[in-house]
Specification:
The chain is α/β, with parallel strands linked by helices. The protein is about 55% helix and about 10% strand. A five-stranded mixed beta sheet has the order 2-1-3-4-5, with helices on both faces. Helix 4 runs antiparallel to helix 5 and helix 7 runs antiparallel to helix 8. The longest helix is centred in the last third of the chain and has 38 residues. The chain starts with a strand and ends with a helix.
Length: about 300
């Protein structure tokens, strides 16, 4: 049997009608519709009660395929690896999906099954578990984001590079502002976004401009305070190293160091992938600090 599954976490228990209003359920419904699967199975968990009764019902038999819109549908960051392992060890498979370019559903390399529900072996179970265990908070959230319409991505970069303002870009696409902002939020942190950021950073001036889309994260505020207190670090070290000195996403930083000293190709490939993402995130945070600095100056002026 094929099931589209989602673990929905709330502070307190909610009924199914409320659960269906959540983004996680709506994404599950989109996947179910795209694959023609009728069975959408949901576990509603709280921070204290993490037992997934309905998933366990599926795992009572072998040969099922548990389909998720992204790995975060399996649960919280600290439990997804164990949930994934549990599914495989009970003789079932996991299909991790995402909407690629043009809105076409694709399978993530972490999947143990293909879109046609046959077994695949791109990565071993040990490699998948290591990948899931090694995710930073940023990457965990990023993996829950789908690739957006190429026109949205193009508009995002036109705005970020100062080639168009937001009003012009939205009018050209022919969408609403709320839809555009929502799609941008899905795009930031995706693999396509990382690739686009690397290309944008080829222009030295880009780094010294504030981000125009997206907010100012807590990590960016933390980095801002660290820059103010330790300006010499940003003169003497690469930006990503200075960001690690600020104590930002040290799990990923330590994971990169751990993988870099290993000799096997898989470890080196994973280290390169994580290094690229950390590098991009560091530069994105730095651009947010510029925006934050302007905000604080304007706030002080208004007061």
């Amino acid at each position: 049997m094929k099931y589209v599954y989602a673990c929905i976490t709330y502070k307190c228990h909610i009924d199914m009608d409320e659960a269906k209003k959540t983004k996680k359920y709506q994404k599950a419904a989109e996947v179910a519709n795209a694959l023609g699967i009728e069975n959408i199975v949901v576990d509603i968990c709280t921070s204290r009660n993490r037992h997934k009764h309905n998933l366990e019902q599926i795992l009572q038999t072998e040969g099922n395929v548990v389909v998720v819109s992204d790995v975060s549908a399996l649960g919280q960051k600290n439990e997804v690896a164990d949930v994934y392992r549990r599914i495989i060890q009970t003789g079932n498979d996991v299909l991790v999906t995402y909407f690629g370019k043009g809105g076409v559903l694709e399978e993530n390399e972490l999947s143990s099954a293909t879109l046609s529900f046959t077994k695949k072996q791109t990565l071993s179970l040990e490699q998948v578990i290591a990948r899931l265990d090694g995710q930073s908070n940023f990457e965990f959230l990023s993996n829950s984001r789908k690739t957006v319409d190429p026109r949205i991505a193009a508009a995002y970069w036109q705005i970020e590079k100062g080639e168009k303002n937001q009003v012009e870009a939205i009018e050209e696409i022919g969408t609403s502002k709320s839809t555009f902002i929502r799609r941008v939020e899905e795009y930031i942190g995706s693999e396509d976004w990382v690739a686009g950021y690397l290309k944008a950073l080829e222009d030295d001036n880009f780094l010294n401009t504030p981000n125009k889309l997206g907010g100012i994260s807590d990590d960016a505020k933390k980095l801002y305070e660290h820059i103010k207190a330790n300006p010499e670090e940003f003169d003497n070290y690469p930006l990503e190293v200075a960001v690690s000195f600020a104590g930002i996403d040290l799990d990923t930083w330590d994971r990169i160091s751990e993988l870099s000293i290993k000799e096997d190709d898989a470890s080196k490939e994973e280290a390169d992938r994580l290094s690229t993402r950390y590098y991009v995130n560091a530069h994105h945070l730095y651009r947010q600090t510029i925006k934050y600095d302007k905000y604080l100056k304007q706030l002080k002026y208004r007061q």
